[in-house]
Amino acid sequence: MTLSDADRDLVVAELGRDPTPAEEILFENLWSEHCAYRSSRPLLSAFDSEGDQVVIGPGDDAAVVALDDDTYITLGIESHNHPSYVDPYDGAATGVGGIVRDTLSMGAYPIALADCLYFGDFDREHSRYLLDGVVEGIADYGNAIGVPTVTGSTSFHENYEGNPLVNVACVGLLSADRLVTAEAQKAGNKLVLVGSSTGRDGLGGASFASEDLAEDAETEDRPAVQVGDPYTEKLLIECNEALIDEDLVESARDLGAAGLGGASSELVAKGGFGAEIDLEKVHQREPNMNAFEILLSESQERMCYEVTPENVERVQELAARFDLGSAVIGEVAEGNYVCTFDGEPVVDVPPEFLAEGAPMNDLDSVEPESAERDLPAFDLEDAFEAVVADPNTASKRWVYRQYDHEVGLRTARRPGDDAALLDVPEADTKLAFTGGADPNWTTAAPYDGARAVAFENATNLAAKGASPLATVDCLNGGNPEKPDVYGGFKGIVDGLADMCRALSVPVVGGNVSLYNDSVSGPIPPTPTLAMVGKADGSSPGLSLSGEGDLFLVGFPGGALGGSAVLEHAGGSDAFPALPEDADAATAVETIRTVAADESTVAVHDVSHGGLAVALAEMVTDEVGAEVSVADYVSLFEETPGRVVVETTDEAALRDLAGDVPVVELGATTDDATLSLAVDGDEVAYGAADIADLRDVLARELD
Amino acid sequence: MIAVVQFGGSNCDRDAVRALSDLGFEAERVWHEDPLPEETTGIVLPGGFSYGDYLRGGAMAARSPIMKSVREAAAEGVPVLGVCNGAQIGCESGLTPGAFTTNASARFQCEHVYLRVENADTRWTAAYEEGEVIELPIAHGEGRFELDAERYEELEADDRILFRYCDEDGNVTDEANPNGSLGNVAGVLGDSESVAVLMPHPERASLPQLGNTDGRGVLAGFEG
């Protein structure tokens, strides 16, 4: 990839001369789709990012949201899709490293990670190879740096075969007085690079992430993948904490896409400054690196700090204490962003133009068509077993068992439930955290599917007694130059934006990853959300207690489009009708109130796989359930915004639910068996049989 | 004051301080390049990935200068508790016999396990009854206890096995052994009775708001 002729003409017009080779490659990377969002930014204005709780919205390394006056969290999300295809272990690991450093650069300490992973069909050997490598990469990195991976999702869909997705979100915690931004403060302040030395790894990663994966990407593109070192990242976390403790940082930015050139130019441009940087000052890992290699290297575990001249010595002392290299590479300056090498200026450009000057793309889009109802004849036993043993709905224990999800002494509700709960005594609350998307939904209906994804994430939080506080999105799409792909992408952006607005959940940041396209075609439009909420009361888990009766709370959608059962049984249907905005908001708030009520003894969100899977997950070795529903659509529809509630007080439940529909499902039993009756058909499965069905990942992978 | 030694790559050091503080102990982190404070009355070798575990779990940290002070303190009877990576460091530095090697699954495992208290007559287990079953979290990739047959017999004869992995009812079975440990051993006493190492994390089962407090008894061992 090189700078396009049109972009080059713009650069020449602005500079009044031809760009130097180093400038040309800097523009190529910073103006890439990956860094400049050229095809997506025109759509992103759909998002509402305002709210009283929002301290810093989109545009910094991570968003900052207030839990109370003195306690903030950071929230960020990032994709590492192409690297994870080429080298699943290192690609996924460095994705974790990057989002954690985005957290550090706000002055926060990372307290939780979420990983949302998407692979081709589970039956394919290649999907399993990628899953195994990605999970191990995340585990080895996240576990070593001591940040618990507490939630996420793992999905399989044939259209990820040529291009898996690895979306990683991180939550950080800080007190209000520790907040740091990526906005340079004052000319004359020094720029100090702290962390690993700079090598030739990951050169051109940003532009690599901005084109379709070639057929030979697995062998050809390995040099564009970075290799992570979690030990150094852990030292960087501790060093960053020590720097903030002593109030030594004026502004900070981590080195990610487009390396030092990206981080330093964005940092100074955001403050309205330029910089003078001497590239030879950068501590290097290998000899004879040239200017553009130093500028564009994506070597991991590096941070760029703005430091006042009098604090430089102490910063370097602390870096040395944590066995980290450091170098004063230059200073914040008025005027242009200037880099010298070997005594000669190699970059001399207006920083605003470099950071913000990329022209936006105006692309054609085609709206997708929706499906007509053509339902198959269902066999209850076949359908139940297929859906419960579907790798998409099955137990993900094989994945999260490899992640340390309890380090940090905050995990009050572990993976495997609707949302994780993290104890935050600093703000006397619990933070609920969930993440995911469903490719079947957004394939069936990009716009409504994305609305459903937002509704579903909010429901996950509410089911654990939490009110949604804020969300970040990771928008993954195929090649936007294809009108149908761009139409689907536009659909997921608008769908997320509309439902988040309806639920009053500000979208405080995000990430866009396009060109997830390969010889096997584009990926499904995939709107991953990571959402947090505050849970001030307590709520029960999802396992049945045997003390109450079972009810379904929420608005039905009455259709099976995008459902797991149609994947197996064939046929087609429209995507379920979601409630109007006001009803959706009422449903989420009602579910939260119900979950936190003392008469509720178990509660579980209904989504992927529908009621059938929700009930299967609630049955235990001791407690079963006897449930009867009207028809197959009721058993398998995946309409979000609904929960199964086990209550000891039906009247109290109906009273709390108000206008939100409550449907009686049946009773709990003491035979550890799920008995289902649907329209005259009946099946029964013991807890052990259900566990076997749900154990497909571990059975196939170990 | 209980010193929680922070090696480069330790990641349960903050957790240990928090759990000990919740039990009313005075505890603080001590960076491994700094000397042990004179007022040290107990030492925790916390979990994590010291030096990235790039050589072998705990091998590098065991050779860190502060470990000489830790061994001296242990010899004088100062209680020392090694948890997870700290248990590996304890073995590697000769405070306890045996080694913790790669799990039978060859994977990292984070889950809750049941442990049977084998000897309740030690400072680390006095809060429990012999034969009592407790639930603690594990989170390790190298937790398989190994020891040669002769020394293992000695260990048993000397009643130095503190905990064995078991099922919910206290049966010590292969199915209840998460990592292939010899004799289902999860924790042992060191050569000095003041030293204990275990792979499960008592500090993660200490705070009431997280739902499980079975580990508080182990930490209470610092009371003496």
Automatic annotation (TrEMBL), chain A:
Residues covered by the PurM-like C-terminal domain: 186-336, 552-676
Q: Which GO terms describe its molecular function?
A: ATP binding; magnesium ion binding; phosphoribosylformylglycinamidine synthase activity
Q: In the UniProt entry, which residues are flagged as the active site?
A: 34, 80 (proton acceptor)
The organism is Haloferax marisrubri
A GO cellular component entry from the record: cytoplasm
Name all Phosphoribosylformylglycinamidine synthase linker domain ranges. 1-37
Task: State the EC number(s).
Answer: 6.3.5.3
Q: Where does Mg(2+) 1 bind?
A: 78, 511
Q: Where does substrate bind?
A: 79-82, 101, 226, 298-300, 513
Occurrences of domain PurM-like N-terminal (ranges): 59-173, 416-534
Write down what this protein is called: Phosphoribosylformylglycinamidine synthase subunit PurL
Residues bound to Mg(2+) 2 = 102, 254
InterPro entries with a match to the protein in the record: PRibForGlyAmidine_synth_PurL, PurL_linker, PurM-like_C_dom, PurM-like_C_sf, PurM-like_N, PurM-like_N_sf
Q: Which UniProt keywords apply?
A: ATP-binding, Cytoplasm, Ligase, Magnesium, Metal-binding, Nucleotide-binding, Purine biosynthesis
Location of the protein in the cell: Cytoplasm
From TrEMBL, chain B:
What is catalyzed by this enzyme? N(2)-formyl-N(1)-(5-phospho-beta-D-ribosyl)glycinamide + L-glutamine + ATP + H2O = 2-formamido-N(1)-(5-O-phospho-beta-D-ribosyl)acetamidine + L-glutamate + ADP + phosphate + H(+); L-glutamine + H2O = L-glutamate + NH4(+)
Give any Pfam family that matches.
GATase_5
Q: Which InterPro entries match?
A: Class_I_gatase-like, PRibForGlyAmidine_synth_PurQ
Active site, renumbered: 84 (nucleophile), 201, 203
Per UniProt, subcellular location reads as:
Cytoplasm
Which GO biological process categories is it annotated with?
'de novo' IMP biosynthetic process
Broad class of where this protein is predominantly found: cytoplasm
Task: List the pathway annotation.
Answer: Purine metabolism; IMP biosynthesis via de novo pathway; 5-amino-1-(5-phospho-D-ribosyl)imidazole from N(2)-formyl-N(1)-(5-phospho-D-ribosyl)glycinamide: step 1/2
Record's Gene Ontology CC terms?
cytoplasm
Query: Recorded E.C. number(s)?
Result: 6.3.5.3, 3.5.1.2
Sample GO molecular function, one term: glutaminase activity
Keywords from UniProt, A to Z, are: ATP-binding, Cytoplasm, Glutamine amidotransferase, Hydrolase, Ligase, Nucleotide-binding, Purine biosynthesis
How it assembles, according to the record, is: Part of the FGAM synthase complex composed of 1 PurL, 1 PurQ and 2 PurS subunits.
Free-text function comment from the UniProt entry: Part of the phosphoribosylformylglycinamidine synthase complex involved in the purines biosynthetic pathway. Catalyzes the ATP-dependent conversion of formylglycinamide ribonucleotide (FGAR) and glutamine to yield formylglycinamidine ribonucleotide (FGAM) and glutamate. The FGAM synthase complex is composed of three subunits. PurQ produces an ammonia molecule by converting glutamine to glutamate. PurL transfers the ammonia molecule to FGAR to form FGAM in an ATP-dependent manner.
Q: Which PANTHER family match?
A: PHOSPHORIBOSYLFORMYLGLYCINAMIDINE SYNTHASE SUBUNIT PURQ (PTHR47552)
This chain's protein is named Phosphoribosylformylglycinamidine synthase subunit PurQ
- Species name: Haloferax marisrubri
Gene encoding this polypeptide?
purQ
